[in-house]
Specification:
Blueprint: H1 2-9, H2 20-44, H3 49-72, H4 88-98, E1 105-106, E2 109-110
Antiparallel strand pairs: 1-2
Helix pairs in contact: 1-2, 2-3
Length: 115
């Protein structure tokens, strides 16, 4: 949960690097919250209002942590735009986010594992 809150606190920070653990723990909690909201909405028989609000709330932190994760692998944050290509773009982003950290220090800062 600390990783999730860390990303929310850095929601406008597109600089620096994010470890794999930070990215994937944020993604895990994001998916869990989305599933819980969907279940609550279906049980309460209401429109997907809560899920829509949560999605709007979480879009900027998700984008920021993805950009920082790409920085950790030595890529520019602009690579996130490849996700706009249907299917192939999502697969490329998935592979990039699964890769290990680049070197101890790259143009985006020091390795967060070492710091």
């Amino acid at each position: 949960m600390n990783w999730y809150l860390k990303v929310l606190k850095n929601y406008v920070n597109f600089q620096g690097r994010a470890r794999r653990k930070e990215y994937w723990m944020f993604t895990l909690f994001n998916v869990i919250f989305s599933i819980v909201l969907t279940i609550v909405e279906s049980l309460a028989d209401i429109s997907p209002f809560l899920t829509s609000i949560y999605s709007l709330f979480i879009i900027l932190p998700s984008l920021a942590v993805t950009v920082r994760r790409l920085h950790d692998t030595g890529r520019s944050g602009w690579w996130v735009l490849i996700g706009l290509i249907p299917l192939i773009g999502s697969l490329v982003i998935l592979v990039f986010t699964c890769l290990d950290s680049d070197v101890e220090e790259n143009r985006f800062g020091k390795n967060p594992k070492v710091v």
